[in-house]
Amino acid sequence: MSASSRSVLPSLVVYPATPRDLEPLAEVLTQVFHPPLGLQRWIYPIRKLGIREDLRLRLGSRDPYYCCLAASVGSRVVGTAEISLRAMAHGKYPYLSNLAVLPGWRRQGVARQLLLGAEGVVQVWGYRNLHLHVLEDNFPARQLYAQLRYIPIERTSRLWRWLGVPPQLLLCKWLS
């Protein structure tokens, strides 16, 4: 791993998002998960509207076990992650979802700082572990998670592949 991929931007700030952050967060999520490439650019505004409304509902839910983190450099939001409780086989556990960093800001420590911020949130909630899913073939993400001591505990069934869902790994990190 190169030194630049480990660097943390000196002006990077990770903070709990508020409704004021709704528009830039929706932009990050839409660009990362539904990039406006080819014909997709025509439905990009509709996808972004749907993402913004879903996020607006989550941000306004007042659920004590939900947190959306924003990562900004200066006044620009460049990444986000959400933490909530998710029902799993043996109860409810803290779960990280929608970790997204704008392409031009990747490999500069943004995702790492969002993960560390999420771990802090989970500890404040009184939990000692954090779960997340990663696509099995997303090797850059898997490398980051491994560096931060996330370990695979489950693999999605191959049955999902028949439905067009790529295989995923459930990772967990036990926090000190």
UniProtKB/TrEMBL annotation:
SUPFAM superfamilies xrefs: Acyl-CoA N-acyltransferases (Nat)
Q: Which domain of life is it from?
A: Bacteria
UniProt signal peptide: none
Pfam families documented for this protein: Acetyltransf_1
Q: Which residues form the N-acetyltransferase domain?
A: 12-172
InterPro entries annotated for this entry?
A: Acyl_CoA_acyltransferase, GNAT_dom
UniProt protein name: GNAT family N-acetyltransferase
Q: Which organism is it from?
A: Thermostichus vulcanus str. 'Rupite'
